[in-house]
């Protein structure tokens, strides 16, 4: 049964896309069911007896599962139905990716108890900043919609998506709430990776591409939050920093493991 669960979760995610906006309760139920099946799938594949499965596909799927968690919570407080058309297709794909790229099992024997916590906090940070990136993308669409001439309207489908979103000011407020939470979690991830590198990860701290990109992503989000607080940054500047910080983080974690596993065929153990 475990082998079919990722495909069931993926199909449920895709089914949510075809639920009309007026049937929001049905969409919420299907989304929650897909999220639960996805979570059960991850639990069975990531956690083994005294071992943890690590790989680009597993990390991407896990991070997007956290992203869906944040989306489900935020969608209850605000109407973010339009976000599902950007979010759920890549989530559906990522759900089945571990079946093709299972990653590597890393034994927990001899490792400190901080290792699973470091892994969990990193996924929370990555997932929260991922939903922030999707949120920034939908805000870009919303901003273009507001500034587009009536002579050149968006397609009826896109108009419907944008019209069902909260006002842009409210969307920006939600975005900074997500970024602030993600930044705190990313800070904890970086600190645990730097200060406790040898104990947590089993290797001495080193300046590799993953470390440099992670720190650069942290710096971008730090500058963004400082600019927002001290200079009142808004609009395109905020969206550019958000997407740049997310893409840098994507390269640091998922990108590096994708290169190792898929292109170089090297084990992570």
Could you name the key traits of this structure?
mainly alpha, 3 strands, 269 residues, 10 helices
* Classification by helices and strands: mainly alpha
Counting copies of identical and different chains, the oligomeric state is single chain
Q: What's the helix-strand series? A: HHEEHHEHHHHHH
Distance between the termini: 28 Å
Low-confidence stretches: none
According to DSSP, the number of beta strands is 3
Q: What strand line-up does the widest sheet have?
A: 1-2-3
Instruction: Based on Cα principal axes, name the global outline.
Output: flat
Average pLDDT taken over every residue: 79
Descriptive account of the structure:
The protein has 269 residues and is mainly alpha-helical. It is 74% helix and 4% strand. Strands 1-2-3 form a three-stranded antiparallel sheet. α3 packs antiparallel against α4, α7 packs across α9 and α9 packs antiparallel against α10. The chain is flat and about 55 Å long. The mean pLDDT is 79.
């Amino acid at each position: 049964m475990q082998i079919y669960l990722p495909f069931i979760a993926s199909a449920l995610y895709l089914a949510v896309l075809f639920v009309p906006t007026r049937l929001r309760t049905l969409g919420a139920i299907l989304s929650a069911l897909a999220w639960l099946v996805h979570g059960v799938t991850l639990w069975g594949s990531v956690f083994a007896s005294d071992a943890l499965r690590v790989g680009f596909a597993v990390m991407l799927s896990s991070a997007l599962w956290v992203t869906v968690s944040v989306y489900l919570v935020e969608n209850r407080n605000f109407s973010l139905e339009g976000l599902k058309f950007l979010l759920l297709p890549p989530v559906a794909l990522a759900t089945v990716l571990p079946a093709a790229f299972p990653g590597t099992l890393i034994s927990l024997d001899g490792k400190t108890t901080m290792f699973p916590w470091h892994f969990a906090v990193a996924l929370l940070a990555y997932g929260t900043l991922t939903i922030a990136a999707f949120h920034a993308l939908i805000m870009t669409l919303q901003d273009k919609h507001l500034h587009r001439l009536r002579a050149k309207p968006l397609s009826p489908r896109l108009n419907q998506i944008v019209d069902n979103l909260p006002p842009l000011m409210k969307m920006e407020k939600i975005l900074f709430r997500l970024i602030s939470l993600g930044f705190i979690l990313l800070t904890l991830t970086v600190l645990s990776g730097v200060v406790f590198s040898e104990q947590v990860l089993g290797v001495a701290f080193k300046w590799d591409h993953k470390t440099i990109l992670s720190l650069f992503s942290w710096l971008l989000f730090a500058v963004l939050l400082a600019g927002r607080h001290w200079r009142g940054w808004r609009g395109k500047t905020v969206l550019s920093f958000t997407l740049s910080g997310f893409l840098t983080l994507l390269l640091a974690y998922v990108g590096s493991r994708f290169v190792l596993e898929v292109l170089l065929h090297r084990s992570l153990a």
